[in-house]
């Protein structure tokens, strides 16, 4: 996600593979094999209904939703306007949206192409491939694989990643060399989401291939997969510029258009633009184990490797695969990635066991982030439903306190939005409070484990939090946030 968002309630996809001792597992109501033609036939009408609600209540100006199943696109539809003032509707086939950090999946694909070519090893030190040096301020070196699961141990800094005009653009290598984040922990220890780490991976691709990163991705991913609208280049030109959906903010009840966002300085981390059909073809390639319409992008064994969990912050919650976030460990396993720029909110979800996937991108006010998340949860809950975990009436130490996210700067005082306050609300009940006043209610399902109480939503998914770690270093993790954790500070 290009721009950091600190949400205490963490709306994402839930459920875990294995639970802590004596904790009953969530009930999986239907397995991967239970997808029926009837469910898929009704899905367009279902998505239309949810989107009507999001447009009415979630400040959504425009959106595209694309669904693939069985090796083909089964749904691709635009909603709202690409240009509100000129009343230009979203064209599902032509309108470009900004996938934000979903762009990272292209970068990891490019990196794994270089691994297959023998030019990169995941077990090599990152410094081997650079023309500058990441300082050796920790006892262990950063390996290439640490970039893929966001465990290099960098602090998170946002200075300079967004440009006001093309005149502010800095070549990728120069920007990375001049903006090395402080190493605040040993590599391989915990995931803390890093745009810098992904940009570094893209620069490695550029260095070992001898091709500028945007050229490389076009020649080796977008062109073979026939993704004509997709590009990492900024600003857009020609038909891409003409078909680009505008970004918006909501002021006094009106959508106000914003300038095209420029993330050139860290382009491999999130500067892509693409249409729904472009993203559909990428999903179909992944679900086809690296091949689409005769074009092979990666070997099947490489695609299968990319789905495997590489690291998890909490012992019984989903973690990070090789570049993909694990959204659900089983019943069925789901992987994907979210993306948030200042103006666009996107999500890609893949269910390889069933050959199913979907992509959502929305623009509008801040509420469009919630709109994207609610739609993704609605689709998952409809096709792959779960049941709430049984409530637990045992006794355990209270986890009450203030917890601070590990994705932040460490050279400056922490900001209030970095913190979540956990308050005991009764026996086996908690309330979580964020700095913006958002609260959520949680009920205990096992030792150190709680499930979010939500309005009735058939099929879930149901958000889980886990308190873990030694007494001197207590941590809080959300099932929907494998990319970060929160640490008790008081």
Automatic annotation (TrEMBL):
Superkingdom: Bacteria
MF annotations from Gene Ontology: hydrolase activity
Ranges where the Beta-lactamase-related domain occurs: 48-366
Pfam families per the UniProt record, alphabetical: Beta-lactamase
Alphabetical keyword list: Hydrolase, Signal
Signal sequence annotation: 1-29
Full protein name: Serine hydrolase
